[in-house]
Amino acid sequence: MQAFYADNFVLPLPAGHRFPMAKYKLLRDRLASEFPAVRMMQAPAASDGELALAHAPVYIEAISRGTLPAPAQREIGFPWSPGMAERARRSAGATVAAARRALGLLPGSRPEGIAANLAGGTHHAYAHKGGGFCVFNDAAVAARLMQAEWARLHRQARAPLQVAVIDLDVHQGNGTASIFAGDASVFTLSLHGEKNFPFRKEASDLDVELPDGCLDAPYLQALELALDELERRFEPGLVLFLAGADPFAGDRLGRLSLGFDGLEARDRRVFDWAWQRRIPLAFSMAGGYGVNIDETVQVQVNTYRVALEYWRKWNPAR
């Protein structure tokens, strides 16, 4: 299974900053040690043209040049640096590359069914601004670019590639919902904490709000009902899955109370739902802010364990 990373582009964060950048390297080290079948590759940088499928050119230029006004930069949560801008491009490029692998859009390739971004899930980025540690919206860029590339290969198709964004980060995907508002070719599903950030939420195609302290069983029941609703209303040809670790009980910013078993069951349900329908799936790790960062990484390692199981179903000869 192919996984793309951008964590070698380090953000120069001030001491005491709340975003746990160490989790990306810890995850990559764990995967390299425990899952040799996960083939890791540095992510390509998304180009201006690719980013412009989901973002305003003036915003892309401001990020590239470091000319974003100070309040807008503070809303993102990172200080600007060339490394920040490069990493944001590569984080978007990682989800693009994973979606291409899953769909088999590379020349001479066939669908692998499942591929991954070792970071990503930057769902708070709007077309014209960032926010909540999100600069460019990787899922939005990947969805629009995969639709364009798929259309070039299927010129006789009467409809665009249908993309479902299954966002299971604990925070609502407000930027994603905004970008795809009114776009019938992309279905946005967000299962998130009702009282958590962002406090001004956008309307996804399907929002499921959960109470503080939500445990495994009601969470999984809510997910099952949401997937049933998604299937009634939409027929995706690609799934983009945001496998946030932040619903975990030990997360500093999550406010839900899922355990390791509940989150693994969540992941298994999403991968199985896509496999049963033979829908290629690209996933990203999204949020995770554990009091103990090793627990966040363990949640993500468990996601990869389940993903590999389903990747082998897609690729039995490998």
Structure description:
With 318 residues, the protein is α/β, with parallel strands linked by helices. The chain contains ten helices and eight strands. An eight-stranded parallel sheet has the order 2-1-3-8-7-4-5-6, sandwiched between helices. Helix 9 links the parallel strand 7 and strand 8 (281-284). Helix 1 (22-34) packs across helix 10, helix 5 crosses helix 6 and helix 8 (216-233) packs parallel to helix 9 (260-276). The longest helix has 22 residues, at 82-103. It is globular and about 45 Å long.
* Largest sheet descriptor: 8 strands, parallel
Decide which structural class fits the backbone: alpha/beta
Shape: globular
**Assembly type of the shown chains?**
single chain
| Mean of all residue-level pLDDT scores | 93
Q: Count of helical segments? A: 10
Low-confidence regions: none
In percent, how helical is the residue content?
40-55%
Quick overview:
42% of the residues lie in helices and 12% in strands.
Features:
318 residues; 8-stranded parallel sheet; alpha/beta; 12% strand
Secondary structure elements and pairings:
Blueprint: E1 2-5, H1 22-34, E2 39-42, H2 48-51, H3 57-65, H4 70-76, H5 82-103, E3 114-117, H6 138-153, E4 163-167, H7 174-179, E5 186-193, E6 206-210, H8 216-233, E7 238-242, H9 260-276, E8 281-284, H10 293-314
Parallel strand pairs: 1-2, 1-3, 3-8, 4-5, 4-7, 5-6, 7-8
